[in-house]
């Protein structure tokens, strides 16, 4: 007798959902498991926050522009998809910080905001002598007793004091996600810091000895660049994944409006007036999109405590002679500076092998963060004016850009606040009781770097196949 075909729905066509669908298809084939996969995406395109615009010879990323290469998940995936030859690694470069309205280079030897080269740290103009003395206290301070989760800001101020945190750590570690380190979960966002403290006591000593953060060293000095992208941008990965999903049903412009458990299956109500019944369903969506679906069952309430931040990316193209970069790769901005932008980079200096039309230069700036999100709602011309005003305080820019591309991400960046891992674990546990056929994965849960999301998609696919084989 022919074995029953199992039906699986993957809701969300971003990198998590795409990767999950790919590995579901692959593993089902390897296991000889008859399966039909339906990928459901509310937008009319796949890729989620990955949106690459090809314009006038430029490769412009509206969302993320790279992924952390050392996590390996996307590198391995690229090999399977046959696009490993299109991988491009960023070049090492000098990042700077705008602190108290002054542009200063990041001290050599900085790893994830932690100074490990004492000489470079002591000669840096980023800090006063009293701030340097207090930060050097990390070398003699005892390690903390292992305790429950705490904010990254609280942990770092205990180790280094206020000045180093505000002028170096905060702008580096809050990053393009616009987070607030005084709410950010140490356990969920940067567990390596607590691990280094417990093992080595001093973060300055421990980060240098173990290189625990070196591979993930955002804006580090003198380290191999840990970021990669693809020729033609990250859309290359999305297109390759979609091409491989030839055995799946892909529904674009379709939204799940409701879910109901029917015995051991899930019934999904779609906004196109249809309903599908599946054996397993993976929701690869932001938690904010999930909450309305499970509100009738009084589930996932703990996830309401996870805030979402709005940001915007602004890409500006100029004639080559109108802008002077110097040798810098870019800069980040501390909250104690009077600037609206939070970061800016020069794509052609990060990715020189990705062609920029001759005679042109491009800048990529970010605005928006916790407590300062209204700027994201301004009109394009107002944002252009603000960004140019900020940039001209730090570098030579003449005239107006040839064109700009403003990309708004409203309530799109999940913030892992203190207690994040516990809340997620409790939410998944309570969901399993009522909907054992439902899995959750994505940027709201187990890491928001693209590599983290891809890995979550693969893990979810493995779990689903195991349950179907059950």
Give an overview of the whole structure:
- The structure is a single chain.
- With 470 residues, the protein is α+β, with helices and mostly antiparallel strands.
- It folds into 3 domains: 6-46 and 236-306 and 416-469, FAD/NAD(P)-binding domain (3-Layer(bba) Sandwich); 52-92 and 228-233 and 307-414, Protoporphyrinogen oxidase, mitochondrial, domain 2 (Polyamine Oxidase, Chain A, domain 2, Alpha-Beta Complex), CATH 3.90.660.20; 108-210, protoporphyrinogen ix oxidase, domain 3 (Orthogonal Bundle), CATH 1.10.3110.10.
- The chain contains 15 helices and 22 strands.
- The chain has helices spanning 15-31, 73-81, 118-123, 129-136, 152-160, 162-174, 186-189, 191-200, 203-210, 235-244, 287-294, 347-350, 380-392, 420-434, 450-469, and strands at 6-11, 35-41, 52-55, 58-61, 67-68, 87-89, 94-99, 102-105, 110-111, 114-115, 227-230, 249-252, 256-262, 265-270, 275-278, 280-283, 308-319, 328-333, 341-345, 360-367, 403-414, 438-440.
- The strands form 6 sheets. It has a 7-stranded mixed β-sheet with strand order 8-7-18-19-20-17-21, with helices on both faces. Strands 12-2-1-16-22 form a 5-stranded parallel β-sheet.
- Helix 1 (15-31) runs parallel beside helix 15 and helix 5 (152-160) packs antiparallel against helix 6 (162-174).
- The longest helix has 20 residues, at 450-469.
- The chain starts with 5 loop residues before the first strand and ends with a helix.
- Residues 213-223 have low confidence and may be disordered.
């Amino acid at each position: 007798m022919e074995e029953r075909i199992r039906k699986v729905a993957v809701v969300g066509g971003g990198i998590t959902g795409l990767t999950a669908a790919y590995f579901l298809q692959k593993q089902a084939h390897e296991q000889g498991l008859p399966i039909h996969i339906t990928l459901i995406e509310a937008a009319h395109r796949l890729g989620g926050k990955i949106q690459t615009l090809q314009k006038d010879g430029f490769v412009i990323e509206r969302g993320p522009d790279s992924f952390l290469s050392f996590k390996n998940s996307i590198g391995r995936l690229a090999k399977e998809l046959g696009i490993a030859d299109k991988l491009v690694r960023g070049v090492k470069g000098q990042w700077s910080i705008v602190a108290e309205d002054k542009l200063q280079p990041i001290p050599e030897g900085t790893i994830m905001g932690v100074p490990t080269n004492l000489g470079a740290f002591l000669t840096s103009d980023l800090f006063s002598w009293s701030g340097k003395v207090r930060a050097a206290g990390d070398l003699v301070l005892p390690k903390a007793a292992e305790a429950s989760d705490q904010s990254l800001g609280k942990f770092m101020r205990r180790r280094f004091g206020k000045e180093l945190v505000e002028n170096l750590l905060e702008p580096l570690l809050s990053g393009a996600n616009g987070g607030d380190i005084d709410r950010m979960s140490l356990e969920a966002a940067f567990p390596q810091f607590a691990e280094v403290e417990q093992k080595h006591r001093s973060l300055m000593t421990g980060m240098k000895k173990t290189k625990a953060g070196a591979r993930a060293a955002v804006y580090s000095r003198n380290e191999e660049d840990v970021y990669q992208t693809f020729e033609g941008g990250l859309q290359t990965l999305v297109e390759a994944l979609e091409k491989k999903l030839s055995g799946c049903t892909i529904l674009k412009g379709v939204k799940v409006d409701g879910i109901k458990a029917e015995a051991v299956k899930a019934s999904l109500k779609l906004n196109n007036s249809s309903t599908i019944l599946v054996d397993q369903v993976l929701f690869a969506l932001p938690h904010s999109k999930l909450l309305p679906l499970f509100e009738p069952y009084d589930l996932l309430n703990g996830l309401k405590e996870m805030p979402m931040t709005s940001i915007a990316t602004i890409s500006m193209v100029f004639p080559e002679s109108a802008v002077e970069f110097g040798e810098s790769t870019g800069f980040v901005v501390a909250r104690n500076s009077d600037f609206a932008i939070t970061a800016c980079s020069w794509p052609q200096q990060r990715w020189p092998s990705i062609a920029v039309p001759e005679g042109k230069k491009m800048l990529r700036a970010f605005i928006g963060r916790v407590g300062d999100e209204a700027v994201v709602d301004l009109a394009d011309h107002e944002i252009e004016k603000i960004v140019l005003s900020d940039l001209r305080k730090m570098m030579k820019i003449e005239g107006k850009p040839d064109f700009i591309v403003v990309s708004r991400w409203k309530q799109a960046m999940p913030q892992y606040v203190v207690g994040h891992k516990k809340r997620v674990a409790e939410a998944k546990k309570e969901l399993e009781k009522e909907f054992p056929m439902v899995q959750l994965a994505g940027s709201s849960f187990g890491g928001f770097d693209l590599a983290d999301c891809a890995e979550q998609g693969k893990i979810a696919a493995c779990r689903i196949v195991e349950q179907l084989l059950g």
